[in-house]
Design a protein that fits this description.
With about 200 residues, the protein is mostly helical. It contains seven helices and no strands. Helix 1 runs antiparallel to helix 2, helix 1 packs parallel to helix 6 and helix 2 packs across helix 5. The longest helix is centred in the C-terminal third of the chain and has 27 residues. It is globular and about 55 Å long. It starts with a helix and ends in a 6-residue tail after the last helix.
Length: about 200
């Protein structure tokens, strides 16, 4: 998935959480910005990525040792990051938004691209949820990106200008995306989690 799609998906994920769990974020704009930052972090393992190019001293050796979409694209990484952030007084209040962005990146890479991610690292098996075989930077991804932008604009304007009543006019765009996310992606991800969690019993 392209960096801009990762960031759009992160913002959309924050808006979904905010919609179904009102009050989750004190400042929705800040939460969206932090999620966009978090959405870039998993690609620390790729020297060619937007974030990896900023920190080549970390991304190059990490890529050499472990490859791409391994530990940084795993549930273990999400748990470790959340633990570190919540244990810090300076970062505690930002942990949810950053980790939502981080986790959305992992889900995004399972949905677009054919390589999958090592979700249950240190197990090396890579998992993909891409039945349509959408390619990175392909027509399918650009369609997803534009749908996400439409949904974000509609929900953002509705949040800040409720008198516009946009949800009654363009709201179906957001609702379609939410339905796809909550009724298709999350159940599939949950099913995979239960299916493969038993593999950890022998570790």
């Amino acid at each position: 998935m392209m960096a801009k799609t990762h960031q759009a998906f992160a913002v959309f994920s924050v808006l979904v959480v905010s919609k179904y769990a009102p009050g989750s974020f004190d400042n929705i704009v800040l939460a969206c910005g932090l999620s966009m930052f978090g959405a870039l972090l998993p690609d620390l393992d790729s020297p060619q990525s937007s974030f990896g190019r900023l920190v080549p001293l970390l991304s190059k050796p990490l890529h050499s040792m472990l490859g791409h979409r391994t530990i940084t694209h795993s549930l273990l990484a999400v748990i470790l990051l959340y633990s570190v952030l919540t244990s810090s007084p300076q970062w505690h209040s930002w942990a949810d938004a950053i980790c939502i962005g981080y986790f959305s990146h992992i889900v995004g890479d399972m949905l677009i691209g054919t390589n999958g991610v090592a979700l249950f690292w240190p197990l090396k098996q890579k998992i993909s949820l891409n039945p349509l075989r959408m390619q990175v930077a392909g027509a399918g991804e650009y369609l997803v990106f534009n749908l996400l932008i439409c949904a974000i604009v509609v929900q953002g304007l509705t949040h800040f200008y409720p008198s516009l009543d946009l949800m009654s006019r363009a709201g179906p765009i957001f609702n379609i995306c939410v339905d796809l996310y909550t009724k298709t992606i999350l159940p599939a991800f949950t099913s995979l989690t239960f299916k493969y969690s038993s593999l950890f019993n022998g570790l």
